[in-house]
Amino acid sequence: MAGTGKVTIQTYKDNKFGEKESVVFTALINPTGYSLTHKVEYNAENPEGANATNSQFIKKSPQTLQLEFLFDGTGVTESNPGNKLLNKIKGKTFSETTVEKQLEDFYSATGDFNGTIHKPYTVIITWGKFKFEGSLTELTIDYKLFNKDGSPLRAIGKATFLESISKELAALMAKKSSPDLTHKRTVQDGDTLPLMTERIYGDSKYYLEVAKVNGIVNFRQLIPGQELFFPPIEKVS
Question: Rounded to whole angstroms, how far apart are CA atoms 162 and 104?
């Protein structure tokens, strides 16, 4: 499940995330969840006459985030069985901020072309402990309810964000995950010590030293949820 608190979109001047802009969007009603898509590209072309494909890794594409926002201008507090998003707000009170105003605030924080930078803002989306850095690439608005004058009273926004981090920031992040630093990892289902060691150091040959540091007698029997320490590589080489 997603974290607690309100989904917040903080705008930044660029994808170095150093200079905040004044525009911030906070969802009146949280989504019921979110989806993250990871994509790895391979060259799967078959040589002529070959019976099997020798797939070659090409690149890892940026992540995409899908969020579904409910923009409600009715101040509704009753259960609505036909809409799972509205079921989540029963018993709560919301101000009757118009759908147009909520969408205007959302566009200002994500989709507007700012006159000084001539492109949509780069944003950091936070929801409890969850954080995503990127830019809005697609937004579909489904209008569901209307006032007598035709103005919308309820809309669902399906938003897609593409991960975007500057080369400078990516380099700093890579430095922070360097094998020269001590790492703490939680064992997941299917993890083995050689596999985890390969991920941290780029070589599985250090797994016996890591087992010794963590007091592991049988490295083949890791327990999901178990926390392991991976010391600086020069200390285990």
Answer: 21
